[in-house]
Amino acid sequence: MKLTRDEVESIAHLARLGISSAEVPAYVDNLSRIIDFVQQLEQSDTEGVTPMAHPLEMTQPLREDVVTEKDQRALYQENAKAVDAGLYLVPRVIE
Amino acid sequence: MHAMSLARISRALSAGEFSSEELVSHLLERIGRLDGELNAFITVTGEAALAAARAADQARGRGDAGPLCGVPIAHKDIFCTAGVRTSCGSRMLDDFVSPYDATVVERLREAGVVMLGKTNMDEFAMGSSNETSFYGPVRNPWDTARVPGGSSGGSAAAVAARLVPGATGTDTGGSIRQPAALAGITGIKPTYGRISRYGMIAFASSLDQAGTLTQTAEDAALMLGAMSGHDPRDSTSVDAPVPDYLEALDAPLEGVRIGLVEEFMGAGLDAANAAAVEEALKVLEGLGAQLQRISLPSIGLSVPAYYVVAPAECSSNLSRFDGVRFGYRADSPRDLEDLYKRSRGEGFGAEVKRRIMTGTYVLSAGYYDAYYLKAQRVRQLIAADFRRAFEQVDVIVGPTTPTAAFEIGAKTDDPVTMYLNDIYTIGVNLAGLPGLSAPCGFVDGLPVGLQIVGRAFDEGRILNVAHRFQQETDWHARAPGGAFA
Which of A32, B162, B192, B386 suits B454 as a labelling partner, its CA being 20 to 30 A distant? Predict the structure, then answer.
């Protein structure tokens, strides 16, 4: 299956990935090959097979709904490029 | 000193043949001298390592030392290390200093292990050749024009070149076993849930598992014992007792049933590689194991199933990189969307972007059933194949890779060609089973591996088979010559 340029640009937008127009043809080619390759799955008969949810059929454990983490905001924010007064800064979103 | 296995080093430290400080100084000197050629390390933590070695020597002096006290290792740069850069091989995390330790890092440190540094890897563990790293490719010490495999390529090259006796790795589709095979060392990926994933940067959460790269199965047993066990901070970590892996190593192989996967011995497998595997099986038969051929009829679909499931999970996991809270942030964004798009576009490399887009596509409206659910159904068929086979045999064996190490640049044009390199390893991840690769010979001077797969939580058995094999052979003891000797 050959993906179109528009499809690739739309996927990149959904994934919030900035791709230059010069890069698009390479992604069209690569992603088309990958999708072609995984389409082999159609050949298999999976009628009545339940999709796997966990490789070892285990279920998620539950725990008490109590706070277990301590507040380490200052430590965590050392890795942020733009913070002010304990807040993460982003470009203005409300005019 | 540097040629010794990890278990041998443990005994030497305990016998006082040398101190941890002497050993660590020697290995740091080797890394400084030889790693320019290999590029196996992203970060070397020399001063901290020497301080930790001195502390380990003091603990040993007080009689307060377990078998790993003072033993040097390296961590794949996917494991968070508090206060030390944790890059995951990506520009995205080039300046990320983790505020906390991964459980694996914490447990090994508590056991007295000394970290020498963080090893190079394919970006976000997405690759089979270590060529997708932001820090450049790692070279194979057996032939520096060739890849060491990936994604744990730095760990594999460092152990193979005897820069460090053991290293951690992660394996989502073969990322421990494949580089172990191509570098001539022993690598084990335990059962899904055996080792905590807390602090291990996520790629595909239903497949990712931590493990080890060492010279021998005995070394792997030593490290694995310290790393395994339940961790409430990883909800998929299994609450089951950890057996004594060392104790299991010497069990006799008489009557152990070994199944050779028919589908793995056919087209696509290099003839000399096949011959090395056949020779290895004769050794196991000589030890009393019973060999039979088994079939995994759906295994041929494991690579396509993986390249739906893994990218789907990756596209979700990597959505956390938004340029806001940590990681790369683009300069002067016009608006919030521009901040997201350019931070991610500039911070991620081409292979990571391909996988995020593949995952986004297969999960998008209208395609979810045809790709993602279909792949999860096929995954059931593959797991069922393994379950049926394990009714007849105790371990499953075959080649780890189709060929020995390829040249740098040989497979970078077509992603699908690269993906097929993991054709024998990927099914094991899809089924959540433990798998190991042990050196079983050489093809034109390059090492190849024997893969040994076990039932869930039967790491002890596959380590036992590998250990007995290594008692009879010396492939694992061979090291690259030249500058690395």
Answer: B162
Say if CB B362 and CB B372 are below 8 A apart.
yes
Interstrand relation of B72-76 and B114-119 (parallel, antiparallel or unpaired): parallel
Tokens encoding B439: 């050196």
CB proximity B383 to A under 8 Å? yes
A17 close to B (CB below 8 A): yes
Q: How far is CA B26 from CA B19, B37, B75, B117, B156, in A?
A: 11, 18, 18, 14, 19
Q: Is the pTM of this model over 0.80?
A: yes
State how far the Cα of A46 lies from the Cα of B20, in Å rounded to an integer: 56
How does pLDDT run across B317-363, given as a tens digit for each residue? 999 999 999 999 999 999 999 999 999 999 999 999 999 999 999 99
Contact by Cβ (8 Å): B346, B331: no
Q: Distance, in angstroms, between B415 CA and closest chain A CA? A: 7
Instruction: Work out the average pLDDT over B295-312.
Output: 97
CB–CB contacts below 8 A, A to B? 165
User: Within an 8 Å CB–CB cutoff, is residue B361 touching chain A?
Assistant: yes
Could you report how far apart the first and last alpha carbons of chain A are, in Å?
43
pLDDT class of A63 with cuts at 50, 70, 90: confident
Contact B398, B264 (CB under 8 A): yes
Q: Burial, B237: exposed, middle or buried (Cβ in 10 Å; 0-12, 13-18, 19+)?
A: buried
A window 58-77, beta carbon within 8 A of B: 58, 60-61, 63, 72, 75-76
Residue numbers of B annotated as active site: 76, 151, 175
Residue B245 three-state SS: helix
Per-residue pLDDT tens over the stretch B124-149: 999 999 999 999 999 999 999 999 99
Query: Which is it for the CA torsion B345, B347, B349, B352, positive or negative?
Result: negative
Query: ipTM of this predicted complex?
Result: 0.96
Quickly list H helices, B6-45: 6-15, 20-38
Based on C-alpha coordinates, what's the Rg of chain B? 21
Q: What φ, ψ does residue A40 adopt, rounded to 5°?
A: -55, -25
Q: Is B124 left (phi over 0), alpha (psi -120 to 50) or beta?
A: left
List the single residue in B315, B339, B350 with the smallest CB-CB distance to A15. Answer: B315
Cβ atoms of B447 and B434 within 8 Å: the answer is: no
Q: What are phi and psi of A73, to 5 degrees?
A: -55, -45
Query: CB B416 to CB A55 under 8 A?
Result: no
User: What per-residue confidence (pLDDT) applies to A59?
Assistant: 84
